């Protein structure tokens, strides 16, 4: 009986030992799983922080390129209720949809300036190399309309660095144009950019396959030989648009233009030479014109300010439009 009890006790002790060992192993497994879960959370948190930082580094340059520091300039942008003022609209950069110098932006600014009962005169400050013929013409026509409806409010253009092509098209609608001696003015012409890669693709053994409905739908395709008939058609169209430009300048400038052989040839001149041949009227900055010509030195900025998100969206759309046009329709502008 004692032997049986002894065997029983030994069995119980072994079972307890096995149970204790299993329990320890179970606890160790639980601990390892817990530590693994914690480590996984830490890794996940690190990756999340990494991607946040990466996104920030990626977007920061885009934001910096998009944001205009002038948007945060509190000077000359708010009416102080002091009465008469000179309205200022800035027209910087390329004249095109989605840009600061788009017809929509500039026309909105001009309309707001003329509608303000305290506006004594308007200055359109241009720093543009040109752009869309249509948008330039729209701004030109709106200036003419506003001046006709508001005969007592003069509109002057001040050129900072450049008013060329479409930029000068717009400027010619003003009552007077003021420049710096070193400003660049003129380039009264039209251009269409294209290129030819026929010889290159032949050397590389590439076969061009283009399907069209309409014999001229592949107009000026860079991978096909130049078609003389199509080329002549485009030249005729460019000449027509050029004539629109010339007529607008002649209407705006009148007899102030001098008889110069290169006036409408697409050449560009310094402000000093532009004054000599009648493209501009005098030297002066926006401050000078406000103080000495309009005689209201208080400048109030009526340039429309876009929201950052809208500007980003418009630029993405404009970039897509530009890529599409370049690929399928060429690039036609006043630049």
Characterization of this structure:
It is a single chain. It contains 9 helices and 10 strands. The relative contact order is 0.14. The N and C termini lie far apart (115 Å). The chain is 50% helix and 15% strand. The radius of gyration is 35 Å and the shape is flat. Helix 2 (103-115) runs parallel beside helix 3 (133-149). It is of the alpha/beta class. The strands form 2 sheets. Strands 1, 2, 3, 4, 5, 7, 8 and 9 form an 8-stranded mixed β-sheet that branches. A two-stranded antiparallel ribbon has the order 6-10. It folds into 2 domains: 1-66; 74-194 and 253-333, 2-enoyl-CoA Hydratase, Chain A, domain 1, CATH 3.90.226.10.
List keywords for this structure.
single chain; 335 residues; 2-enoyl-CoA Hydratase, Chain A, domain 1; 2 domains; 8-stranded mixed sheet; two-stranded antiparallel ribbon
Which architecture of the largest domain per CATH?
Alpha-Beta Complex
CATH classification class of the largest domain: Alpha Beta
Quantity of strands, as a count: 10
Average pLDDT metric? 82
Under CATH, the topology of the largest domain is which?
2-enoyl-CoA Hydratase, Chain A, domain 1
- Overall shape: it is flat
Classify the secondary structure makeup into a structural class: alpha/beta
| Portion in beta strands | 5-15%
Summarize the structure.
The chain is of the alpha/beta class and 335 residues long.
Detail the topology: elements first, then pairings.
Blueprint: H1 2-66, E1 85-92, H2 103-115, E2 119-128, H3 133-149, E3 155-164, H4 166-171, E4 176-179, E5 184-186, E6 191-193, H5 198-203, H6 228-253, E7 268-270, H7 271-276, E8 282-283, H8 286-294, E9 299-301, H9 308-328, E10 331-333
Parallel strand pairs: 1-2, 1-9, 2-3, 3-4, 3-5, 4-8
Antiparallel strand pairs: 5-7, 6-10
Helix pairs in contact: 2-3
């Amino acid at each position: 009986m004692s032997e049986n009890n002894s065997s029983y006790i030994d069995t119980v002790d072994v079972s307890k030992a096995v149970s204790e060992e299993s329990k320890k192993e179970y606890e160790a497994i639980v601990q390892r799983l817990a530590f693994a879960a914690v480590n996984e959370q830490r890794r996940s948190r690190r990756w999340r922080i990494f991607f946040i930082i990466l996104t920030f580094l990626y977007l920061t340059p885009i934001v910096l390129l998009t944001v205009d520091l002038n948007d945060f300039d509190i000077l000359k942008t708010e009416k102080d209720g002091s009465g008469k003022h000179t309205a200022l609209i800035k027209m910087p950069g390329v004249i095109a949809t989605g840009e600061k110098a788009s017809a929509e932006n500039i026309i909105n600014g001009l309309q707001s300036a003329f509608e303000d009962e305290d506006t004594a005169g308007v200055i359109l400050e241009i720093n543009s190399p040109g752009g869309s013929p249509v948008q330039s013409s729209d701004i030109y026509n709106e200036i003419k309309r506003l001046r006709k409806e508001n005969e007592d409010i003069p509109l002057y253009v001040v050129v900072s660095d450049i008013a060329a092509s479409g930029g000068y098209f717009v400027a010619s609608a003003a009552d007077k144009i003021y420049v710096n001696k070193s400003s660049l003015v003129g380039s009264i012409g039209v251009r269409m950019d294209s290129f030819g890669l026929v010889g290159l693709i032949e050397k590389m053994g590439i076969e061009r396959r283009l399907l069209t409905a309409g014999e001229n739908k592949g107009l000026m395709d860079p991978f096909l030989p130049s078609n003389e008939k199509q080329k002549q058609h485009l030249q005729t169209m460019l000449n027509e648009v050029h004539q629109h430009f010339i007529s607008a300048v002649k209407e705006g400038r009148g007899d102030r233009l001098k008889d110069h052989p290169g006036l409408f040839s697409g050449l560009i001149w310094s402000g000093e030479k532009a004054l000599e041949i009648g493209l501009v009227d005098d030297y002066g900055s926006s401050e000078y014109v406000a103080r000495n010509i309009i005689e209201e030195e208080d400048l109030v900025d009526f340039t429309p300010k876009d929201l950052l998100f809208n500007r980003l969206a418009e630029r993405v759309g404009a970039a897509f439009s530009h890529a599409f046009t370049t690929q399928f329709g060429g690039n036609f502008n006043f630049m």
